[in-house]
Amino acid sequence: MIAKIQEIFRRQYGSSAATSVYFSPGRVNLIGEHIDYNGGFVFPAALSIGNYGVFSPRSDRKIRLYSENFQSAGILSVDLDGLAYRKADSWANYAKGVIREMMSRGTIEHGFDAAVYGDLPQASGLSSSASIELLFATYCNDAYAIGLSRPELAVLCRKVENEYIGVNCGIMDQFVIANGKKDHALLLDCATLLFTAVPLDLDDHSIVICNSKVKRGLVDSKYNERRAECDAALALLSKHGSLRHLCDLDPAAFEASAVDLPDVLYRRAKHAVTENARTKGAAEQLKNHDLAGFGGAMNASHDSLRDDYEVSCPELDRLVDLAREHGAIGARMTGAGFGGCTVNIVPKALVPAFTTAVTEGYYRTYGLLAEVYLAAPSDGTRKVV
Ligand code: GLA
Fold first, then answer.
1. Which of 54, 157, 163, 277 is spaced 20 to 30 A from 22 at the CA atom?
2. pLDDT class for 18, splitting at 50, 70, 90?
3. What is the domain count for the chain?
4. Is 290 a catalytic residue?
């Protein structure tokens, strides 16, 4: 892959200038969904698939950006003084927004050429955009000696996503992509950004990702709608005493104070509160090698996202049902929902039969060819050459 991206760089820029190569992973969330913005705990892992970038410094103030995944966009050439958002710049806006933000943290007086190539499926809920953001942030941090820590880079990239791109996401994706650890998942407290890396000792089980191939069309508007519903529930619950986040409540305290909530807000808040408890429990279960307990928590998470939070879709539900029928001990949607991927814990010996049965069953119902990947939890964004 490194030779391939270097070749792409040479082809585009025709130069043999000194380059460095960075890798930035995608992510899969094992449990703790839609609660990063409710001050809850999440439990994601960085992946071994992601985005590679080749970078070469320039002596002038130009930035040139090329992605092999968006070949028809060609090379975008911008100036360090001209980094405003432009819809037409598509993927390159993630790079531009990050560079602009990094310029407010340190001195960036000369530009660079960059070529990017990713092996993450696009728009599949594995965080391709956060991966690109951290790729550029990490390169700029090193190349211009800006000196931000990994958690600070994650916070900066989330700011870019919220304010420059205009997507109101939480911190989970950027944080795990920046701070991921090989063979571990991160138990991250999104209220404090304190985290622990928990070894993914799954005995003889694999983490299997199934891509529904349903592009997440509705996700932006529905995501904002869910956030607004959580804010409304928080405002009503705060009448009983000050509350910073929904996830400050445990399930018993929530039930005691939730009597006045309208049905929809009750179900949204119930998801947040119970998901937070499940996530903390699941991390403990994993530490204690209670894989059945861990899988059970994943199953309950999906059911809550489907029934109470209502961010699943029939295709994801079908993939989850098929997975449970064909040997997964835990199966759930992962990421924002409304399409994208499921994550499953499957006994290693069953993976080939599982893959065939799930993809065939899914094809029979929806005529869609699901893709199946084995997840290899990896380190966060890093220089590879
Ligand atoms: C998206 C967002 C995250 C998180 C998840 C749902 O991936 O970017 O911040 O809210 O959805 O858990």
1. 163
2. confident
3. 1
4. no
